[in-house]
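Q: Can I see a sequence and its folded structure?
A: Here is a first one.
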Amino acid sequence: MIEVPSRNPRIKVAGASLATFALTLALARRQTSVDAPTADEPVLATLDGLDAERVTLTTDDGAAIEVVVAGADGGTTVVLSHCWMGVHTMWAAVAHSLVADGYRVVLYDQRGHGASTVGSDLLTTDRLGSDLLAVLDSVGATDAVLVGHSMGGMAIQGLVATHPEVLGRIRGLVLVATAARFSRLTIPRRLAHRIIGDAASTRLAARSPGRVRRAFGPGAGPAHFQVLHDSIVATPGSTRADCLVAISAMEYRDRLGQVSVPTRVVVGSHDRFTTPARSRALTDLISGAEMTFLDGIGHMVPLEAPEAVVAAVAAVTAVDRTPKPTASPRLTGAAT
């Protein structure tokens, strides 16, 4: 793990990138060049063993959001927001470690994923941000660390962009394998549904789990692939497609200057989707943010390197936000 201090050069991603399609194409097309896994490490993908409470909240547009709370009531609250086509248990290894370290951990399923339903509003990353605010309200979080992976990081950006007042309730941010902008072109809804909507469900289910390996670094193996494959297949096709459109339309590059809380951006060297360049650009948009670069890790950081996420939480939690007294100016020369 290499700590990279924040810089302020202007970073541009040239051209009308369609990088949002990357994960979709990795699933739907034949692969010709991929990294072969070198090992198959065990993957913790269950909250079994944690003393957890489950709550279902209803948003203002009628979505039912499944929320899980575990850990000590007096500990710092850490809210974990998962990726596109993911589920809250993808954070299992992170959650177990955080609870063991004394944190109060809040996990939830994004709308349309896992046990959560879709409401009446159009699915956008701003709407996902409002869902996150509802989660914070439901657990009474007033000094929370928000951790978001990929689309979960976009939900955090949607929250602070559309509800800036919430920054007074946030202790720090950890943005994992995410970006502030993907493409200059919004993917048409009809095209997204044709590529990865309900019509694609049978095809995706029949694919070998190994076909998702482009989402991982070279050290991942079949157990990692199975977790992601199963989650993708379990996500309703309409949610897969609508989230793809939402991600392609997202734009937060000019809306993050107001963020002043301690922030850590985490990215893997083998992330083909939210690349290190995108993470560097995101880091430079947030005052004082720092970037953690994970050598040999791909896009699925919560599964591949959960310890790096835990370390990032500890880093932003440890920042002293107590205002420092301003020293009186020194008087020079003789008084007259």
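Q: Show me another, different protein.
A: A second, unrelated one:
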Amino acid sequence: MKGILQDVKAVLFDLDGTLVDSMWMWTDIDIEYLARFGRSFSRELQKTIEGMSFTETAVYFKDHFAIPDSIDQIKADWVSMSIEKYRTQVPLKPHAGEFLKALKRQGIRTGIATSNYREMVDACLGALPVDGLLDVVCTACEVERGKPFPDIYLHVAKKLETPPEKCLVFEDIPAGIRAGKAAGMRVIAVDDDFSKDMEAEKRALSDFFIEDYSVLL
């Protein structure tokens, strides 16, 4: 498995569920937020919105659940609900920090390609021991289309000045895996409790599947 890094010049990570253990948080937030408006959460919702940018998700919530608030207000509410959790309750995935340090030692560039909102990404990463270990951090709000389209991964690769074929992507959900593959990159699927029921699909779509980052050390 360690040979997977041969000829790789840049490693690109999704954030939630891939680099950090946070997907549980978003289920809690969705349930709490929808309850404010008398709406019910369903497991199907998570599958529908997977890969959408933060803004795309807010638009979907407003339209699908007839939320009376503006898109900006919906996003502001989600930000306020999530930031404290990101700062105090969200850890790196097992051995992810060690893997980032190993990439740094090997001179392999690193980037984040997340569907999340910038303020929350900054709060999350600011609370973790990753200072100096990530070269580029981008969100899907910076590009035209969210995952499963390749836009965010191509955007990060361009910022890293690395051709797609020299990039390796780590993802935890099918939409993200599709985005990486559509960008012309190899993709490793990362195990996550939130997406256990998607494991067969993740294995089928990706080039490799790992339980955690220890197998790459």
